[in-house]
Design brief:
Structural class: alpha+beta
InterPro entries: MMPL_dom, Mycobact_MmpL, SSD
GO cellular component, one term: plasma membrane
CATH class of the largest domain: Mainly Alpha
Radius of gyration: 27 Å
Helix content: 55-70%
Number of strands: 4
Membrane topology: Multi-pass membrane protein
Order of helices and strands: HHEHEEHEHHHHH
Number of helices: 9
CATH topology of the largest domain: Multidrug efflux transporter AcrB transmembrane fold
CATH superfamily of the largest domain: Multidrug efflux transporter AcrB transmembrane domain
CATH architecture of the largest domain: Up-down Bundle
Main location: membrane
Largest sheet: 4 strands, antiparallel
Keywords: Cell membrane, Membrane, Transmembrane, Transmembrane helix
Strand order of the largest sheet: 2-3-1-4
Strand content: 5-15%
């Protein structure tokens, strides 16, 4: 529970050089290039402006702190000693390349994109800002937006399904609460392990959503398996005896399935990509937490404490035991 209420997982994206669990030759080469050339020269920010706004847009871009230079794309190749080719104009528009002072795939570079857009939109609202860094920034923004939308929607749909299946609002709410608590506790442990054990720089912005989808899908399966049996036994034995009988019958199967599934996802940890290693650890730990602690101890204990009222508003709450 403490892990669930204290997680501060840093999931604001990873630079390409931080996407591997070990340093590769390509990462080393990129670092060497950054030592001798401007960091952002290999992947500049691309700005599409009207021909008449080139001068003003360039001046606005140069006021941004992390931009070192701005050059228009020319109609030809620049050759030392020869006149510079004219600026390339397509349908009255010009492409400007803005070189960043920082690595173009870094979090700092991505955070510069909204500053750049604000600067050029002061010149013309129709100016477009693109390039690899802008794509990464927009992807992160979309991922955070998806987290705020998809997670609540999924929980509502699952709550409705559980309520209809168990014919109980209280039971559905309780199971949803345990699923959310298990998910938050997993993120809390991930933060501690990723930062202090594996020394990862952070996590991809989509990591929480992928972890949520896997853990909720698997956790709800175990919930349904356990609670449908508990409900059947409660009709014959009463809620408190029924939960003990249901746990006895299904506990071994749920735990065994969880261990097998956790071992399967743990295999992702041997891959050299940080995202897959993180996802493998999170799902493996979350499944074990769900099967061994939440589904085997926490849920049965809460149902036992609440008693027959767990089945409200169905008639089973009155426990007319046969």
């Amino acid at each position: 529970m403490l892990a669930g209420f204290s997680f501060t997982l840093k999931a604001d994206g990873l630079a390409n050089t931080e996407a591997f669990t070990k340093k590769t030759d390509s990462v080393i080469g990129l670092e060497r290039l950054g030592e001798h050339f401007p960091s952002g020269e290999g992947s500049p920010v691309e700005i599409v402006v009207k021909q008449d706004d080139v001068a003003r847009a360039t001046a606005a871009l140069l006021t941004v702190e992390n931009i070192s230079s701005v050059e228009p794309v020319v109609a030809g190749q620049k050759i030392p000693g020869l006149p510079t080719p004219p600026v390339k104009v397509v349908e009255g528009k010009v492409l400007l390349n803005a070189t960043l002072k920082v690595a173009p795939d870094s979090v700092e570079a991505r955070n510069t994109i909204p500053v750049i857009r604000e600067a050029v939109h002061a010149v013309d609202k129709e100016i477009l800002v693109g390039g690899g860094t802008a794509v990464q920034y927009d992807t992160d923004v979309a991922s955070r937006h998806d987290n705020r939308i998809i997670i609540p929607v999924v929980l509502v749909i699952i709550g409705i399904i559980l309520g209809l299946l168990l014919r109980s609002i209280v039971a559905a709410a309780l199971l949803l609460l345990t699923v959310v608590l298990s998910f938050m506790a997993t993120l809390g442990v991930c933060q501690l392990v990723f930062e202090h054990v594996f020394n990862f720089a952070g996590a991809d912005a989509s990591f929480p959503l992928f972890t949520f989808i896997f853990l909720v899908a698997l956790g709800i399966d175990y919930n349904i398996f356990l609670m449908t049996r508990v409900r059947e036994e409660s009709i014959k034995l009463g809620t408190r005896r029924g939960v003990i009988k249901g746990l006895t019958v299904t506990g071994g199967v749920i735990t065994s399935a969880g261990i097998v599934l956790a071992a399967t996802f743990a295999v992702l940890g041997v891959l050299p990509l940080v995202f897959l290693a993180q996802l493998g650890f999170a799902v493996a730990f979350g499944v074990l937490l769900d099967t061994i602690i939440v589904r085997s101890l926490l849920v049965p204990a809460l149902v036992h404490v609440i008693g027959p009222k767990i089945w409200w508003p169905s008639k089973l709450q009155y426990e007319n035991i046969k």
